[in-house]
Specification:
The chain is of the alpha/beta class and about 475 residues long. It contains 20 helices and 14 strands. The chain has two domains: about 15-250, P-loop containing nucleotide triphosphate hydrolases (Rossmann fold, 3-Layer(aba) Sandwich), CATH 3.40.50.300; about 260-470, no CATH class.
Length: about 475
């Protein structure tokens, strides 16, 4: 007969003292747990790709320096994920005075409620435990009021006879309630200046002033911020006193290599490519999807200060796979391989994700910009795969009146039939991905046609979802 040993957590202040538990600040807690993970060579931020040698070391230094942090970067650079990832560096759970709104440290209570309870019950004071998952809170700046973050006088408590100058008259906001935890404020430049002053007081003075009544709390909290460089650096958006009190500024960035962007795209898309309607995605199609995002970030028609989020790639990747999977379901083929014609559906997943540069001298609609960056992305990837001179013969066929029609719902077998007319020339196309699979050969054909179009070697027309390539 086996016996299971159960470890009982302390439930009273006396039991907590007897257990040998030692009080430490939340910044010290992050500091100590980070050093343990570093010495164990553990993955500090699982799921964060491309920051191993740039951003993550800076975050580590800020934690070891016991700093509050500002994550500065364009949209879609994992700022929020990094902030949420710090929860992993907290202890699994910590004790607090049961019933305390501020999760008071039993050894160092800061609220009147907790101090009165300990004075009355001493070692019999009940203790509760706060898990790490609940010790993180975040707020989006637009629309956030002082009462939301700091607190407000509670009219019900005043009606009950509580003095307005007493701590008991307060309804605490998010930050006091996250005492001994982590609080994150997203898009800090959009925060009202009065609220910024309140944050400045907390960072510097540990002083909470509500309706002119100073209530001094020695709050134990890590405060994180995120912002876009274009708004954070604009004069007057963030008060200088708040900027000066933020310990470390962590600059994020987009993937430095396309391969990194593809890894992020595949991870975040989270799509099962197997199942009853399997999809096999060739590398050149993944590269085109990520290159579309890269080209959008470089486009003169897109606001560079706003940036283009990784969500742009993720949404387009999902749409491309959805189009291929729809084809295999309708046509009853064994599997689907995404083609260039599947990219015709990317407008739906791309619209609304680009902020156009309204100051550009040549105005284009969002749809025109999306189409332009697609063509440029195909051209870039095509050049990497193909020796352009090797495809002159294929381009020359169109000068003899050859016209090839492709489409996202065209069976793969149709491509093989149509190419029987010019087999020697088209064998060059299949060097891109040598395979006898009809679906892969169809994808290669479309890739070459789109590449030639991108180089203005041939022309194309679209009608009812079908694309015809001609001279």
């Amino acid at each position: 007969m086996s016996t299971t040993l159960t470890v009982t957590r302390p439930r009273t202040l006396g039991e907590l003292k007897d257990s040998g538990w030692k009080s430490k600040s939340v910044k010290q807690e992050l500091h100590d747990n980070l050093l343990k993970l570093l010495s164990a060579h553990d993955d500090l931020f699982p799921g964060i790709i491309g920051y191993e040698d740039t951003v993550i070391p800076e975050v580590c230094l800020a934690i070891l320096a016991r700093h509050d942090m500002l994550f500065l970067g364009e949209k879609g650079q994992a700022k929020s994920r990094l902030m949420r990832g710090l929860v992993r560096l907290l202890d699994a759970e910590i004790p607090y005075v049961a019933g305390s709104e501020l999760h008071d440290d039993p050894m160092r209570p800061i609220s009147q409620h907790a101090r009165r309870m300990i004075a009355a019950e001493d070692d019999a004071t009940p203790i509760a435990w706060w898990p790490r998952e609940q010790r993180y809170a975040e707020r989006l700046a637009p629309g956030t009021k002082f009462a939301d973050l700091i607190g407000e006088i509670d009219p019900a408590k005043l009606a009950a006879g509580t003095s307005m100058s007493a701590e008991d008259a307060l309804h605490f906001g998010l930050i006091p309630r996250m005492n001994r935890g982590i609080f994150a404020m997203n898009e800090v430049p959009e925060l009202d200046e009065l609220v910024q002053v309140g944050l400045f007081n907390i960072l510097e003075e540990r002083d909470v002033q509500i309706r002119g009544f100073p209530i001094r709390f020695d709050l134990d909290i890590v405060i994180l911020f995120s912002a876009n460089p274009s708004t954070y650096n604009r004069s007057g958006k963030v008060i200088p006193q708040l900027k000066d009190r933020i310990g470390s500024l962590i600059r994020t960035h987009y993937p430095r290599e396309r391969e990194t962007g593809i890894a992020i795209m595949e991870q975040e898309a989270g799509i099962d490519l197997d199942g009853p309607f399997p999809v096999r995605v060739p590398l050149f199609m993944k590269e085109i999807i990520e290159q579309i995002t890269i080209e959008a970030r470089k486009s003169d028609f897109v606001d560079s200060q706003s940036g283009v989020s990784a969500r742009f790639s993720i949404a387009n990747y999902r749409t491309m796979i959805a189009s291929a999977r729809r084809r295999v379901a309708i046509l009853g083929e064994d599997h689907a391989i995404p083609r260039i014609s599947d990219l015709g559906h990317l407008t739906s997943s791309s619209m609304g994700k680009l902020e156009l540069d309204l100051m550009s001298s040549h105005q284009m609609s969002e749809q025109q910009v999306i189409e332009a960056v697609q063509v440029e992305a195909i051209r870039k990837v095509f050049d990497e795969y193909c020796d352009q001179h090797g495809f002159e013969e294929i381009a020359g066929l169109f000068g003899k009146g050859v016209s090839i029609e492709v489409g996202d719902l065209l069976p793969s077998s149709v491509y093989a039939e149509r190419l029987k007319r010019v087999p020697p020339a088209w064998e060059k196309a299949f060097e891109i991905n040598p395979s006898q699979d009809p679906a892969m050969r169809a994808a290669c054909v479309e890739f070459v046609l789109a590449g030639l179009y991108a180089h203005q070697k041939i022309s194309r027309s679209t009608k009812h979802g079908r694309v015809s390539y001609t001279t």
